[in-house]
Design goal:
heterodimer; A: alpha/beta; 21% strand; B: alpha+beta; 26 strands; 26% strand
Chain lengths: 287, 565
């Protein structure tokens, strides 16, 4: 199996360090970058495929040169063999459509110059855009089938089909099993759980981890960077110029004001504590 | 190795030629040796890392007479995985503040090539790496976090193992090195857990101490270590003793008691450990400072009674504690070395009988090799067999104790000739092998020696060991919430009450332990019941023997995780 995992760097929202400029555009330079949290599930699906069926996994990301750190993180996590970064100034400010064109061009170049690809994995929407468009649009550009919201994956390399369990409408109560021919684009759901019930698979997992620990040391030796010329992309169709999406503004959501009133009481004040108990009394009976 | 495969059934299970369950010294030796024979070997270990579930008092021996020692199989063992070698060996006979110390170095060095103190997390995790390297070369390897929970049978015959985390695995040969609470030995009907008098229970504290301070306080140089044993009246009437071993920059201090005696005396194991820790004799080594890193506990099989004479069933063999191969005779406590020998012999037995259609061929060969190598003779000494009927006879014991306690007996022990003879007797492997398991050997004689020949210890030991609550709080647990690994079958105090005090992480009047006693009022009458919370469990297995439980190990990576061991 030959897989490509698409992963994206996103602002680290957890730090609360996101900053916007006057026009409401995200200030990426001032916000630390981490791997898109949902991509971790895609990585696990790719790793499970690699462990069970062998082969090769490449990590691929589009973004500024500093995004190689995300690919390095991906290598550590899924033991990818090599990494591809699609990066130059012409690609900056791409929306999902321009990104899909760029990614599909890169996958096609990979197929022409490296080898045929059986599977492309992507995570379920990114934490910054939250559109969920890039994956489907990339599959559309490649003219590949796409299976989304995948929670379990089984591949039959001989028949060249995959069988996936997926959440219908993203709802955990409704699960369907689908079959798709390879090559196929797979979008994993955050509910995806890899399973390793065979000792051979766990041993392979362990072997890959050990091999990766050495490879990550020389990460740069396994990194290929392609710019828009490598991808033979016309700058009119990529980057800001190729992006039909217009973001009118980004407004921070105001915090809802609390409707409750707080009264401060000193725990040492016995009269105050009595008041608390009195207030609580009506609720003590469970009604 | 397709020529020896016995599968072909309808189930499409994975197959390995050999499966070794447990990666302690026994499993490691078996796996390393199997791999050396070119046999595809899979090792399954339930801890997050080998050693995370293991505890030992702390000395590993290399016997001159043993066919295999751990450094034969793992050449850098002593440099990489062990603590200090034991260069001095003493026993202290204690009667209150009166202490008589004998140098036991002669006994210690009998048949001993070397002896090192070890901490099991460091030791076993190092072994795991070496074993993984070796077994990977023949198509196998070590997997951690996998708990083998039973045997795969076909037409009643053992053909493999079942696991919590993996699908069943077929194997042509199964080495059960899954420790003192071996679930495989029980599944194969090779072990029962009924009798407390077949077991010892040990508890241990690992105490932080700088290497320089250890050298200074124990008067040793770098690369030297000491072992101290303690017997006498500091444990009241509970039969057993204490030990202190020096590691690189910690001390291992513990107590080992006959489980039946703990139950009979309703003794609290942690309090007996504290009795040792706070004895004036130990003040010289603590100097008022005490920083306990880890509290741990373990059951110890008494090989004299439970070392299995034919430790196999079909294609399964028992190695180490799983086979009861733990030699505890008076001051001689040897387990890991026998596990190493047994593991290596089990591997050789399979290599020699490989391809034999009879699934028990390897087990029979292994049994013969245990005998011929002298290992079984050490585990079940003939001398003990002869004297045990006498030693365990209450009347005889009482008579002997009566004599020792009488003025005549006291004079005999106390006389100047005895003063010279007793250290010699203690250093005699022959006599020590005959020591009966009575309080005469553990308490009466040592305290009498202490009284008659002892010097008074004037030091004050002012250290305060942590409470049981603090000890439990310092341990690392990965609790399997909602999935307790022990079920209490009979909650009446008569059936299971012994666990309240014998469990090393439970105590009467302590609500934070595994077992608690509660008085429940029903229909006007009061009933004393036992309740169980497995969260603080250290997986020693004591309650499986003294209470009515359904006892299993937690799933892979769950439960307690020892950092020292």
């Amino acid at each position: 199996m030959r897989s490509i995992v698409l992963t994206k760097g996103v602002p680290d929202f957890s730090e609360g360090a996101v900053s916007f400029d006057e026009d409401g555009h995200l200030e990426r330079g001032k916000t630390p970058t981490v791997m898109n949290p949902n991509d971790h599930f895609a990585l696990r699906a790719a790793l499970q495929t690699r462990v069970r069926h062998g082969g090769h996994v490449s990590g691929m990301s589009m973004g500024p040169p500093s995004y190689s750190s995300v690919l390095e993180e991906a290598m550590g996590e899924i033991y990818s063999d090599d990494s591809y970064l699609l990066s130059d100034r012409e690609l900056a400010a791409s929306d999902t459509w321009a990104t899909a064109i760029t990614l599909s061009a890169a996958i096609e170049k990979y197929q022409e110059e490296v080898t045929d690809v059986d599977l492309v994995f992507a995570g379920f929407k990114t934490a910054d855009g939250e559109t969920g468009h890039t994956g489907p649009q990339t599959a559309w550009c490649l003219e590949w089938p796409i299976v989304t919201h995948v929670i379990a994956l089984d591949i039959d390399p001989d028949e060249r089909v995959l069988r996936a369990k997926r959440l219908v409408e993203g709802d955990v109560d409704e699960i369907e099993t689908v079959e798709a021919p390879l090559p196929c684009f797979v979008v994993t759901d955050p509910e995806f759980e890899p399973t390793y019930r065979k000792a051979a698979h766990r041993l392979e997992h362990k072997r890959l981890r050990a091999a990766t620990e050495e490879r990550v040391e020389d990460f740069d030796d396994h990194l290929t960077t392609w710019d828009h010329e490598d991808l033979r992309l016309d700058s009119e169709y990529i980057g800001l110029d190729g992006s039909p999406t217009i973001v009118s503004s980004v407004d921070p959501i105001p915090k809802a004001p609390s409707e409750r009133e707080a009264t401060m009481i000193d725990p040492g004040d016995s009269g105050g504590m009595e008041q608390v108990l009195e207030e609580l009394q009506p609720y003590a009976g469970g009604d | 190795m397709s020529e020896t495969r016995t599968d072909g059934g309808s189930e499409d299970y994975e197959h390995y030629e050999a499966v070794v369950v447990g990666c302690g010294p026994g499993g490691a030796a078996a796996a390393a040796r199997l791999a050396e024979h070119g046999i595809e070997t899979l090792v399954l270990e339930r801890g997050v890392e080998a050693g995370s579930k293991n505890v030992s008092g702390g000395l590993i021996y290399a016997e001159d007479s043993a066919p295999y020692t751990i450094d034969d199989l793992f050449p850098d063992f002593r440099e990489e995985a062990a603590e200090r070698p034991v260069t001095d060996y003493h026993i202290h006979n204690i009667d209150g503040r009166q202490v008589t110390t004998y140098d036991l170095t002669d006994l210690h060095e009998h048949d001993t090539d070397w002896c090192d103190a070890v901490l099991r997390r460091t030791m076993d995790s190092w072994l795991e790496q070496r074993v993984h390297e070796k077994t990977s070369e023949t198509g196998g390897g070590v997997l951690t976090g996998v708990r083998v929970n039973g045997l795969l049978r076909e037409n009643g015959e053992i053909v493999g193992v079942t696991c919590d985390e993996l699908d069943p695995i077929r194997a042509d040969y199964i080495v059960a090195a899954d420790g003192v609470n071996s679930e495989l030995a029980r599944a194969a009907d090779l072990m029962d857990w009924d009798e407390p008098d077949e077991w010892f229970q040990g508890v241990k504290a690992v105490v932080d101490m700088d290497a320089d301070v250890i050298n200074d306080r124990f008067s040793i140089e770098e690369g030297e270590g000491v072992a101290h044993l303690f017997s006498g009246d500091l444990f009241e009437d509970v039969r057993g003793g204490g030990f202190l071993y020096t590691n690189e920059d910690t001390l291992s201090i513990g107590t080992v008691f006959h489980l039946d005696s703990l139950v009979a005396e309703e003794a609290e194991p942690h309090e007996l450990l504290d009795a040792l820790l706070t004895h004036p004799l130990l003040a010289q080594w603590f100097d008022g400072e005490y920083n306990e890193l880890e509290y741990s506990a373990k059951l110890v099989p008494d090989s004299k009674k439970v070392a299995h004479r034919e430790p196999y069933a079909d294609n399964l063999v028992l190695v180490g504690d799983a086979g009861g191969q733990m030699q505890a005779q008076g001051p001689i406590i040897k387990g890991m070395n026998h596990a190493v020998t047994a593991g290596a012999l089990a591997a050789d037995a399979y290599a020699l009988t490989r391809g034999n259609a009879d699934p028990e061929a390897a087990g029979r060969r292994y049994t013969t090799m245990l005998e011929q190598s002298g290992t079984m003779g050490k585990l079940r000494p003939r001398r003990y067999e002869l004297t045990s009927t006498v030693g365990e006879h209450d009347l005889v014991t009482k008579a002997v104790e009566g004599v020792l306690n009488s003025p005549v007996g006291s004079i005999a022990v106390g006389n100047p000739i005895a003063k010279r003879l007793l250290p010699k007797a203690y250093n005699s492997p022959f006599l020590v092998g005959m020591l009966p398991d009575t309080s005469m050997a553990y308490t009466t004689l040592p305290s009498l020696i202490g009284e008659k020949h002892g010097r008074t210890v004037h030091w004050e030991n002012e250290i305060e060991p942590p409470s049981l609550e603090e000890r439990i709080g310092d341990l690392t647990y990965n609790t399997d919430v909602g999935n307790p690994h022990i079920l209490l079958q009979d909650e009446s105090f008569e059936a299971s009450g012994a666990a309240v005090y014998a469990c090393p992480v439970s105590a009467e009047d302590f609500g934070g332990g595994c077992y608690r006693a509660e008085t429940v009022k029903t229909n006007g009458s009061e009933e004393k019941l036992v309740s169980l919370d497995t969260q603080p469990c250290v997986e020693c297995g004591t309650c499986a023997i003294v209470a009515d439980t359904e006892w299993t190990h937690p799933r892979g990576e769950k439960g307690v995780e020892y950092k020292q061991g």
